[in-house]
Amino acid sequence: MPTVPIIDTHLHLWDPARLRYDWLSGNAVLDRPYRLADYDQATEGLDIAAMVFLQCEVDPRQYREEADWVAALALEDPRIQGLVAWAPLEKGAAVTDDLAHLARHDILRGIRRIIQFEDDLDFCLRPDFIAGVRTLAEFGLSFDICIDHRHMANTLKFAAAIPEVPMILDHIGKPAIRAGVMEPWASQMRELAALPHVHCKISGVATEADHAAWREDDLARYVDVAIEAFGFDRVMFGGDWPVAVQAIGYRDWTDLLDRRLAGVGQADLARFWNGNAARFYRLEPLT
What we know:
The protein is α/β, with parallel strands linked by helices. It is built from 9 helices and 8 strands.
């Protein structure tokens, strides 16, 4: 078990009775409410000092309602210190009004407009999308990159084009763990890490493996590549709860990483589990 406080940089919460999430339909594990009380139960015994909520692919017509709901939850549990909301960044500079509306919430820290689900691998290179992401700099917001390994080549071009916006790669870029494929993902990770404004979230790894039959080594070698590429100054922990429970329990995930980080110095451990998260998402420093 980690011996330092944890900032969870990737928390999902939802209630399908409140808001619509089409992607949950038919998923026997996920298609039910996951609330703060459920998260507390899943993380019992861990020192979760703060959390960052990540948008949950709510019906796009309800993205403002999702942000409003999370802001209200943060009043109930002040550990929710950050909100990464959805916004229609493909509108280009016209997204300013949408961002201004979201910025009413003082916990807003960034935007995630998922790239992974776009059939067009060039989506992230469209001029309007790049202009929309560039607009985040005007609001002091970061961008969460959510892709899978198929998008890595274009993500390199995309991230390089917008150095003024801090970015973080979710789920280590979702490599093809189930197939056991390492390249070209590993080389592309090193290229992405060469961009100083890009960070990496160690999250969602087991979900990319065989949910029922993965072994620890299957995950560890990909985690090792990500940490080696970005270094302990630009990697951070993410729980990806409850999506990850399809493949791994929360405590199992933290224990796996704790074992993987055995022998790492205390300063680097603190950076991984909380310090980098506080710095990137501009959270209250832990005392």
